[in-house]
Amino acid sequence: STIAKDMIEQAYYWKILSETLLHDPVLAIIQTRQIIDLTGPISKPNTSTDRLNAVKILLDLLQEAGLVAGEFDPDSLFKMELGAIPEATQDLFDSLKILVGEHIRPELHNVCH
Description:
It contains 5 helices and 4 strands; from the N terminus they run H-H-E-E-H-E-H-H-E. The chain is mainly alpha-helical.
């Protein structure tokens, strides 16, 4: 039945999200947890080549989705390779958007002036 297929699909995507939260080195450092139901839709995160901004973008995504960071050592996070932080953010976004939906931002060239 369609309901059974939907339940199996949801369970599968929850498993992917759980694995992402457990096994991604960046998300493991910040001890990401879910304390309330996931919220959404979420916005596609920006990217940044600045380490501090990249961390802020990740934390904003967590908050938008209803996830929280646990207590963590910021030095451990800032010692990570810079590319690991945006990669973790994108992986988390990809896992979450299937479960909670995505805000679609209008493209700049489509905006009327």
